[in-house]
Amino acid sequence: MFQKDTFIQIDDVLVNTEIYRTNFACDLSACKGACCTLESEYGAPLELKEIEAIEKNLKNVVEYLPEHHRNKIAITGFYEFKDEVYMTRSVGNKACVFVYFDGDIAKCGIEKAWFEGKSDFRKPISCHLFPIRVSKLFGKTMRYEKFDECKPAVKNGVEHKVRLIDFLEDPLKREFGKEWYDTLREEGGE
Fold it and tell me: The pTM is what?
């Protein structure tokens, strides 16, 4: 198997092999949607085409959001440009501006609108791929980003024998295509 912190190249993407060795399956009942409420001054990275897609669907998305999130969007907008990256705004340096709560679990208002057929955009790819991050400093580089809040997902993945790349099959295919994803699985062994 792969050595720790090694990389393989698949087409134009450099892939940290740790993503093959990691078991992961979200457990929202345990983490409460922590990925949407991580304390930070930075929101979720956005691509320009995603900003356009969100703007197009925004009126249908905001109906799912708490009033103070709707107010934040109305006053400051839903994104900002910081450190050379477009990103979603956060409320109180914690919750993404698109978070709504289903009981005590943070969920995405953009995705809720998509699931209910009120939006043609599912959610930012950086959110859909989480906890995989794709940086573009020296070409595309994919890595697994560890968070304490995701320990229940790792435990759940181990218990159910679900690898990170299998759990994230849909967003990986969305971003890179089915053929690329099939190559990723072949390279990492099944």
Answer: 0.91
Give the strand pairing for 13-16 and 140-144. Answer: parallel
Give yes or no for residue 166 having a pLDDT over 90. Answer: yes
Q: What are phi and psi of 43, to 5 degrees?
A: -95, -165
> Among candidates 113, 125, 143, 152, which has minimal Cα distance to 33?
152
Kindly tell me the burial class for residue 80, based on how many C-beta atoms sit within 10 Å of its own C-beta (0-12, 13-18, 19 or more): middle
Q: Where are the beta strands (DSSP E) in 90-161?
A: 90-91, 95-96, 99-102, 105-108, 132-135, 140-144
The count of C-alpha atoms lying within 13 angstroms of the C-alpha of 89, restricted to the half-sphere facing its C-beta, is 16
- Exposure string of 34-60, with b = 16+ CB inside 10 Å and e = fewer, is bbbbbeeeebbbbeeebbebbeebbeb
Respond yes or no on whether the N-terminal peptide bond of residue 131 is cis (omega within 30° of 0). Answer: yes
Express each pLDDT in 35-80 by its tens digit: 999 988 888 999 999 999 999 999 999 999 999 999 999 999 999 9
